[in-house]
Design goal:
The complex is a heterodimer. By secondary structure, chain A is α+β, with helices and mostly antiparallel strands. Helices cover 30% and strands 29% of the residues of chain A. Chain A has five domains: 67 residues, Phenylalanyl-tRNA Synthetase, Chain B, domain 1 (2-Layer Sandwich); 205 residues, Phenylalanyl-trna Synthetase, Chain B, domain 3 (Phenylalanyl-tRNA Synthetase, Chain B, domain 3), CATH 3.50.40; 67 residues, Phenylalanyl-tRNA Synthetase, Chain B, domain 1; 184 residues, 2-Layer Sandwich (BirA Bifunctional Protein, domain 2), CATH 3.30.930.10; 89 residues, 2-Layer Sandwich (Alpha-Beta Plaits). A seven-stranded mixed sheet of chain A has the order 19-22-23-27-26-25-24. In chain A, strands 4, 7, 8, 11, 12 and 13 form a six-stranded mixed sheet that branches. Chain A is elongated and about 130 Å long. The termini of chain A are far apart. By secondary structure, chain B is α+β, with helices and mostly antiparallel strands. Chain B folds into two domains: 87 residues, no CATH class; 238 residues, Bira Bifunctional Protein, Domain 2 (BirA Bifunctional Protein, domain 2, 2-Layer Sandwich). Helix content of chain B is 39%, strand content 19%. In chain B, the strands form two sheets. Chain B has a seven-stranded mixed sheet, with helices on both faces. Classes of the chains: A alpha+beta, B alpha+beta. The interface between A and B is large, with 89 and 81 residues.
Chain lengths: 678, 352
C-alpha cells in the first residue's frame, strides 16, 4: 500500500529522511518494498501485515513510526461540528442486518458547493493511487487514507422520498437509508458505469426503491455526488469482514474500501473518521450539519490483557525491564489498569484488534525494543539420538541403488491434463480433480508416474542416445470404499524407464534393486505386455514395454522398457538384514553347456531341470547366450550356459564333475525336442 | 598325415625365425608373400592339398593349418608394430598418447533437491532433530484452522491454495474440505498429536502454490519446516539453531536479522534474512543491493496451535520456521531458473 512521506511527517515530529523512515518501518513494523520520489514528496510502498487493519492508514503507519522513535501515537483531532446522536431529522436509517453491520454513522450536510480540490489534496490522493473526482468525494477518500475508515457520500436529493406517518393523519416526507441483503438478481450500476447483478450474499445500502451502493465495496450511480449536488449524506459504517470478502469475491470487485473492510475494522473508528470528513468537507465545500444518526446497538469496549512481565523475557530470550515494557505499550495507547507483583493488567484500545493474548504484547515489546538486541543462546536440552524416519530412509536407499545402476532421478509435476487423461484412457471418476487449477494442463492429480516420465523421454530423446530415468513420487487415486464413499489415496510409486527393448536388462535392474532392499522371494508372472512382479505371491509391480499407440501419440521415437513398483508395499517388505554366506574353501570348476530347445520353451524351465539333475554342487547357472536363426533349425533356439560346480565340503574331482555334467545332459535330452549340443 | 603335420610345424618354426630376424617393413612383406600369398604361399599350398585327404585326417590337418596361419598373421602384425615403434620413437615400447580424451563413463544422478535435502537433514539431525513427513493432500483443519487461521481471513491469501474438487457440495469453510498443502506446517499438528514434547523436528516436503510460474516462481515447490518444543524455548534459542544451520550449510560465517512479520500460527512472528553470501553484505545483484537475502518465516509457536495439537502451552514453548528448499538449492548451485527442477531435462540433471 502506498503512503506519502510528507503526510506521515505531519503526524510525527522529528521523522528522519525517507530512507531512514523506511528502515525504521522495516526494523520495527513492515517491509517497505519501494521508495519513490514524486515531486517534493516520496511515496513509500509498505507491505502492511494482514493482522494490522489499523495500519491501512497514514495515521496507523505514523503511529508505528512515532513509537519506533520512542514517542506516543498521534492523537485524533476531535469533531468540530456537534453531532446529535440518533436524530436524523430529515432521514432515517434502518439496519436490517445487524450482525453484518455493527455500526452505521451518517451525517447530513446541507448547502455544500461541490468544486475542485486544492492541489495538495489532489496530489496526495494521486500519490496513493486514487483519482481526484471533486472536493466532496476527494475529502472522504482523503479521510480514508488518513484513518483507514472507508466512507461514502450520497447526493441526498437523489435518494427516494418516503411518506412517513407522524400522527394519525399527518405525514412527513422523509428519506430512508436501508442496510439489507441484496435480492436475488437485483442489479446496480456503479459509479464507473458498470452494471452488477447482485445476490443474497451481498450487502447493499438502499433507499425504499433500489440499491444505492454495494455496502463497503462500491457506490452506485443513482445517488452519485456531482458538481450539482447540494445536500449530501456522509456514511461511515462498519461492515462484517466476512460479508465484504464474500461479496467482493462473488462480484470479482476489489476496491480500496473492500480491502480495508476485509481485514476487520474497529467499529469505534466510524465516529472519528466521519468527524474528520465533516471538518474537511466544510473546509473545502462549506455546508452545514443538519442531522446525524449513529446506529451502534452493541458498542465495542476496550478489553484487558494481563501480562506476566517475566513471560516477555521467557519468550524473547532477553531481559527487558518492566519500566521499558510499560513505556512501549503506553506509547501504543495501551493503558495500565493495575500493577501486581509479577504482572501488569493493560487496557487495549479497540483499534488494536490484533492484540488478544499476552504473547501479542510480548511481540509489541520485542518489536520496539529491537529484535536485534536479542542475543544468541544455545538451547539447554537433553541429548536424544535421532529417530530414523523409515519412509525417507527407504526412499533414499532405493534412490541410491538406482543411481548406482546408472539411472538419473527426475522430479515431475503432480498433475496431468485433460488431454493426457483421454490419451491414457483414465476415467475421470477415478481421478482427483483440482477445483481451481491454474490451467487445464493441471486439472487432475496424477494417478501414475508414467505420464510425466514419458514427457521426460520426449524432452531428452534428441539429446541422448540412451536414457535411464526414474522417479519416486506420490500418485493420487480415488477409490470407492465398501459403503460407496469415495476416498482419495495418496501413495508412493517408483517408476523407471529405459530406452530400447531391454527386458532382460531391466529385469536385472529390478532383481538388483529388490536384493539391495533386502527383499527375497521375487517372482515373475506373465501379464499383459510384460511381467507382473510378485513377492511372496502378492503383486508389487510390473515390468515390460510400453503401448506403441501411446508412444506414437506422444511422438516418442524409440521403444521403451519400464518397471513400476508399489513403494508402500516395497518398504514393508524391505529389510536391512544381510547375513554373510560362508565362501567355500574348495575350488570351483566351470563347464559350458549349450542346449537346443523349441523357441517357446521357458528358460526358467531349462534352468530348473539343470538344477534338478545337477544337485547341490551345481552352484551357479548363468545363461550367456541365446541364439536363433542361421545355423539353428527352424523353430528352435540355442541356449548357452556356464555351469559352476562347487562343493562346500570337498574338492570335486574332474571325473566327478564329468559325471554330474553328463547327468544334466542326459536329463535334458529326455525332454522331447531338446538337444544338447556337443 | 603326420607328414603334413610335420611340414606345418616346420613352416611355423622357419617362418617364426625369419620374422624374428628382420628389421624392415619391406622384408616383412616378402615373408608374408612367401607363406601367405593366395596363389603361391607355402601355407596356401597345404590348404589346397586338403581336398585329397579324407575323414579324421582332413580335420586334423585343417585344424593345424589354421593354427599356423593365425600364428603367422599375429607374428607379422606384432613385428610390424615393433618396427614402426622403433622408427617413430626408437625405444621399441608402445607409445601412449595421453592427450586422448578419457572415455565417458555413465553414472546415475540424484536430483539436486534430493541432494540438498539430505544435506539439510544431516545438519539438523546432528543437532538432535528428527525428520518427519506427512501427506500432500490435507484437510482445511490441519492446514489452516488448527494453525490458528481465522475463518476466511485475508491472511489466507498469502497461501495461494489449490483446492480438491469435492464430489458433494461442501461449505468452503468446512474443516474437512481437502486441499493440496501450500506449506508443510500441517505436519506440525500431525506430529504433535502423536508425540508429546520435548520435540525437535524438521519436515521437508513438497508443497503447492496456485500462482503463475516464471524464473523465480513455481506452483510446485519444496519446503523445510522446523519445530522445536521444549521447556523455556525462546527467540534467542531460535537464533542459535538457525545460525548454526546456515553456517554449516554455507560453510562460512553468516549473519541473520529478524524483521517483524505475521503468521497466524506464531506469536511473535518474524521474517529471517541472512547476510548475502555472494557479497558478504556489501550489496550486489543477488541481494538487490540490500546486503540481505530473505530466507524464511519463523516465530514462537502460538499457544492456540499447541492447544489444537494437544500440547499444554503452560508447560511448553517452542519455535517454528519454514523455508523454501528450491531457493536454497538455487543459491547453492547458482541456478538461474526454478523451472529447471521439474523439467526432467537430463542436460540439467546430469550436472549433479
Amino acid at each position: 500500500m502506498l503512503f506519502s512521506y510528507n503526510w506521515l511527517k505531519k503526524y510525527v515530529k522529528g521523522l528522519p529522511d525517507p530512507q531512514k523512515t523506511a528502515d525504521l518501518l522495516i526494523k520495527h513494523s513492515f517491509e517497505v518494498e519501494e521508495i519513490k520520489k514524486n515531486g517534493n514528496d516520496w511515496v513509500l510502498d509498505v507491505k502492511v501485515l494482514s493482522n494490522r487493519a489499523d495500519c491501512f492508514s497514514h495515521l496507523g503507519i505514523a503511529g508505528e513510526l512515532a513509537v519506533a522513535l520512542g514517542k506516543k501515537l498521534p492523537a485524533f483531532v476531535p469533531l468540530k461540528a456537534g453531532l446529535r446522536r440518533g436524530k436524523g431529522g430529515k432521514f432515517k436509517v434502518v439496519v436490517e442486518e445487524k450482525n453484518l453491520c455493527r455500526r452505521y454513522t451518517a451525517i447530513l450536510l446541507e448547502n455544500v458547493k461541490v468544486g475542485e480540490s486544492p492541489i495538495k489534496i489532489k496530489e496526495r490522493l494521486q500519490f496513493c493511487g486514487i483519482n481526484s473526482i471533486n472536493s466532496v468525494v476527494d475529502a472522504v477518500n482523503y479521510v480514508m487514507l488518513e484513518t483507514g475508515q472507508p466512507l461514502h457520500v450520497f447526493d441526498f436529493d437523489k435518494v427516494s422520498d418516503v411518506n412517513f406517518k407522524v400522527q394519525s393523519s399527518k405525514f412527513k416526507v422523509l428519506k430512508k437509508i436501508i442496510v439489507r441483503r441484496a435480492k436475488a438478481n437485483e442489479k446496480i450500476t456503479t459509479l464507473d458505469d458498470k452494471e452488477y447483478k447482485l445476490n443474497e450474499s451481498i450487502l447493499v445500502i438502499a433507499d425504499e426503491e433500489e440499491p444505492l451502493a454495494i455496502a463497503g465495496i462500491k457506490g452506485g450511480k443513482k445517488a452519485e455526488v456531482g458538481s450539482g449536488s447540494k445536500n449530501i449524506l456522509i456514511e461511515s459504517a462498519n461492515f462484517d469482514r466476512l460479508a465484504i470478502r464474500k461479496g467482493s469475491r462473488s462480484l470479482g470487485l476489489r476496491t480500496d474500501a473492500s480491502l480495508r473492510f476485509e481485514h476487520g475494522l474497529d467499529p469505534n473508528l466510524t465516529m472519528e473518521a466521519i468527524g474528520k470528513a465533516v471538518n474537511l468537507i466544510q473546509d473545502l465545500a462549506g455546508g452545514k450539519v443538519t442531522g446525524g444518526i449513529d446506529f451502534y446497538p452493541k458498542p465495542v469496549n476496550p478489553w484487558r490483557i494481563k501480562l506476566d512481565i517475566e513471560k516477555v523475557g521467557k519468550i524473547l530470550g532477553v531481559e527487558i525491564t518492566e519500566e521499558r515494557i510499560i513505556k512501549i505499550l503506553e506509547n501504543l495507547n495501551l493503558a495500565v489498569v493495575k500493577k501486581n507483583k509479577d504482572s501488569v493488567l493493560f487496557k487495549v484500545p479497540t483499534f488494536r484488534q490484533d492484540l488478544k493474548i499476552q504473547e501479542d504484547l510480548a511481540e509489541e515489546a520485542g518489536r520496539f525494543y529491537g529484535f536485534e538486541k536479542i542475543s544468541i543462546q544455545a538451547p539447554m536440552v537433553y541429548l536424544k539420538p535421532e529417530e530414523r524416519n523409515e519412509n525417507i530412509f527407504w526412499e533414499d536407499r532405493a534412490k541410491d541403488i538406482l543411481k548406482e545402476i546408472g539411472f538419473s532421478e527426475v522430479f515431475n509435476y503432480s498433475f496431468i491434463s485433460e488431454d493426457e487423461k483421454d490419451l491414457f484412457g483414465f476415467n475421470s471418476a477415478d481421478l482427483t480433480e483440482i477445483e481451481n487449477p491454474l490451467s487445464s494442463e493441471q486439472k487432475y492429480l496424477r494417478p501414475i508416474l508414467e505420464v510425466s516420465l514419458l514427457k521426460n523421454i520426449k524432452t531428452n530423446q534428441n539429446n541422448f542416445d540412451e536414457i535411464n530415468i526414474f522417479e519416486l513420487g506420490k500418485v493420487f487415486r480415488k477409490i470407492k470404499t465398501k459403503n460407496e464413499k469415495c476416498k482419495i489415496t495418496e501413495e508412493r510409486i517408483l517408476t523407471a524407464m529405459m530406452t530400447g527393448e531391454r527386458f532382460c536388462e531391466m529385469k536385472g535392474v529390478v532383481n538388483l534393486l529388490l536384493k539391495k532392499l533386502g527383499i527375497a522371494g521375487a517372482s515373475y508372472e506373465e501379464f499383459e505386455n510384460g511381467a507382473r512382479i510378485n513377492v511372496n505371491q502378492s503383486a508389487v509391480g510390473c515390468l515390460g514395454g510400453f503401448l506403441p499407440r501411446i508412444l506414437k501419440a506422444l511422438k516418442i521415437s524409440r521403444p521403451l522398457t519400464i518397471f513400476t513398483l508399489d513403494f508402500e508395499a516395497l518398504q514393508k517388505l524391505s529389510s536391512e538384514e544381510n547375513n554373510y554366506c560362508p565362501i567355500s574353501r574348495f575350488p570351483s570348476a566351470m563347464r559350458d553347456l549349450a542346449v537346443l530347445v523349441p523357441v517357446k520353451t521357458k528358460i526358467a524351465e531349462v534352468i530348473a531341470k539343470m538344477k534338478q539333475f545337477g544337485g547341490v554342487v551345481t552352484k551357479e547357472i548363468d545363461l550367456f547366450d541365446i541364439f536363433e536363426g542361421d545355423n539353428i533349425s527352424q523353430g528352435k533356439k540355442n541356449l548357452a550356459f556356464h555351469i559352476i560346480y562347487q562343493s562346500g565340503d570337498r574338492t570335486l574331482s574332474p571325473e566327478e564333475i564329468d559325471e554330474i555334467h553328463a547327468k544334466i545332459v542326459k536329463g535334458l535330452e529326455v525332454e522331447a525336442g531338446w538337444e544338447v549340443r556337443k | 598325415m603326420y607328414n603334413m603335420i610335420g611340414k606345418l610345424e616346420e613352416i611355423k618354426k622357419q617362418a617364426g625365425e625369419e620374422i624374428n630376424s628382420i628389421g624392415a617393413i619391406e622384408e616383412l612383406k616378402k615373408i608374408e608373400k612367401k607363406y601367405l600369398d593366395k596363389k603361391q604361399g607355402e601355407l596356401v599350398q597345404i590348404f589346397h592339398s586338403l581336398k585329397d585327404l579324407a575323414g579324421e585326417e582332413k580335420i586334423e590337418v585343417g585344424k593345424k593349418a589354421n593354427e599356423v596361419r593365425s600364428f603367422l598373421i599375429e607374428a607379422l602384425k606384432s613385428k610390424a608394430v615393433e618396427i614402426k615403434a622403433k622408427e617413430d620413437g626408437g625405444s621399441g615400447e608402445e607409445w601412449l598418447d595421453i592427450t586422448i580424451p578419457g572415455k565417458k563413463i555413465e553414472i546415475g544422478h540424484l536430483h539436486p533437491i534430493t541432494l540438498v535435502r539430505r544435506e539439510v537433514e544431516g545438519i539438523f539431525k546432528s543437532m538432535g532433530f528428527n525428520v518427519a513427513d506427512g501427506p500432500e493432500i490435507e484437510t482445511q483443519w490441519n492446514n489452516f484452522d488448527a494453525l490458528n487461521f481465522a475463518k476466511d481471513h485475508p491472511a489466507k491469501d498469502g497461501w495461494d491454495t489449490f483446492w480438491i474438487k469435492s464430489d458433494k457440495a461442501i461449505d468452503p469453510d468446512s474443516p474437512e474440505r481437502l486441499l493440496l498443502r501450500p506449506h508443510t506446517s500441517p505436519v506440525q499438528i500431525r506430529y504433535m498429536k502423536e508425540h508429546q514434547p520435548p520435540l525437535r523436528i524438521i519436515i521437508p516436503g513438497r508443497v503447492y502454490r496456485n500462482e503463475a510460474t516464471d524464473a523465480s516462481h513455481e506452483f510446485q515447490l519444496h519446503q523445510v519446516e522446523g519445530l522445536m518444543v521444549d521447556k523455556d524455548i525462546n527467540v534467542a534459542n531460535f537464533k542459535y539453531v538457525i545460525l548454526e544451520f546456515l553456517k554449516k550449510f554455507f560453510k562460512r560465517e553468516v549473519k541473520i536479522r529478524l524483521r517483524p512479520s505475521f503468521f497466524p500460527f506464531t506469536e511473535p512472528s518474524f521474517e529471517i534474512d541472512f547476510s548475502c553470501i555472494i557479497c558478504g553484505g556489501k550489496g550486489c545483484r543477488v541481494c538487490k543491493q540490500t546486503g540481505w537475502i530473505e530466507m524464511m518465516g519463523a516465530g514462537m509457536v502460538h499457544p492456540n496451535v499447541l492447544k489444537n495439537a494437544g500440547v499444554n502451552s503452560k508447560l511448553w514453548t517452542g519455535f517454528a520456521f519454514g523455508f523454501g528448499l528450491d531457493r536454497l538449492v538455487m543459491m547453492k548451485y547458482k541456478i538461474d531458473d526454478v523451472r529447471w527442477f521439474n523439467s526432467g531435462d537430463l542436460r540439467f540433471l546430469k550436472q549433479f
